[in-house]
Design goal:
heterodimer, A: alpha+beta, Rossmann fold, OB fold (Dihydrolipoamide Acetyltransferase, E2P), 2 domains, six-stranded mixed β-sheet, five-stranded antiparallel β-sheet, B: MetI-like fold, globular
Amino acid sequence: MITIALRHRFADTAIDIAFSAPSPGLTVVFGPSGSGKSTVIAAVSGLLRTERGHVSLDGEVLQDSGHRVWVEPEQRRIGQVFQDARLFPHMNVEANLRYGLRRAAPGPIGFDDVVDLLGIAHLLRRAPHTLSGGEKQRVGIGRALLSQPRLLLLDEPLASLDDARRADILPFLLKLKSTLSLPMLYVTHSLPELSLLADHVVLLEGGTLRASGPIAEIAADASLPLAARDDAGTVLELTVQGHDAARQLTRLTGADIALWVPLLASAVGTRVRVRVPAREIILAGAVPRAISVHNALEGIVRRVVDDPQRRAAMVEAMFGDTVLLARITPDAVGRLALVPGAAVVALVKSTSVDVLTPQ
Amino acid sequence: MAIRLSLTVAARAVAFGLPVACLIAVLLARGRFYGRGLLDVIVHLPLVLPPVVVGWLLLLLFGLRGPIGAMLHDWFGIRLVFTAAGAALACATMSFPLMVRAIRLSVDAIDPGLIDAARTLGAGTWDRLFTIVLPLALPGIVVGAVVAFAASLGEFGAVITFAANIPGQTQTLPLAIYSALQTPDGDAVAARLSLVSVALAVTGLLVSEYLGRRLRARLGR
């Protein structure tokens, strides 16, 4: 468990944030610029000493302004990946990778494993200024991992890259997440990165905490800023249950729901993460017959949140413990008499389901 | 003879001055401590004081009856006044601000983010100094050393005041030129020595320019 409580005044803003995050697990710290994301990272790494603050990691206190506890950054064993990689320009890639490794106590993360995992074996002799942005970032990730950290901080690691490079690195980050049981704090303002990577989400807004919780909960909360976006949607962890090659469909199941999606290449039993956009869901009073939609889920309405700006409403529909968001018009809410507790059928086109991890 | 003496004196001045200059430059560029402004002023004094005054202050401090000079003499049997080592000390003092300035510019140009990155990787203060700060400041260190070397070759006032003008011992190139000009028919000797002096100075500047450029290219800047 990572526990963080901060108070700091900058010239133009004040930060007052407190939350805890699971360990292990990947926690995405999400918010617009100026919301305090970078302050959180700097306080955890110790590069910024906030006016008041408490930071602890798996029970060890790293900062406690009340009890005058302060552990220097070089003694925290917290690895950091910076937005701009920050490779040492006077060392080649291998020397950069080994910089933290040489200074760390022997740990579980091996040099060859990291080089393999990140696909940087062919770069070891190169100078940092000859690398592309994506290569630099991979070396930066490797360097931080090799310092045998107890926690990895990633401060918008993909923000300085173009879409193609981003798509190159995301699989590495996913692999990292699944192969190492290392807690990570990942700062971003990109919804695709959040949807793909997060186990836990910390939402910041204007220097304060807006919400903190598991991704499925936060993404399905119609009152949070994530649900106010055009591309709002829920994130589900499902398992490949089977393929129907003749119909060109794959069946995904979770604890409470099952979805048909266009045929995937993944083996049966693979965990996949999908995103269901709120505006792609149709709500109905009963299961219609003779319709192209493959997925008709029967559930009940949990809550309806008005969105007057968009002349729309966001409906939270529960299927067991799984919640989906559906954006429909207030007129439809009235016609279907959607009030909390009412029965409802959610129609989800199989082609509208974004499968995020097709491995 | 004066040429060789000048070269060794200048080399010793740089050899002794450089490590101290590196430390002071890093302190001034990155340190946050009380009295930093005062240290800055003291370091730059030789640049603005008349060299004769610097030489005289050195006499007061390092003379046989000066506080430091007496200690060195009584404890280690080292005498600085009127020796080649003394000439080197005078040159080191006079060229010190030049070295500090060149190194400090280089240290200031280092991205503080790199030093932060080294901290998160477990490097302590001295570790960071030797593995990140000084290597990245190398262009400035080299330029500072070469400029200080060239300036030491030309130092006159502080040397003649502190180390006197003893042929073969403390008579460096400028002192030899001065002495030659004092003797009748010394013009030819003075002209020859002056030519050497110009050649050395130009070489020094060219070398520093070349080395600085190569080192920067290696860092990809």
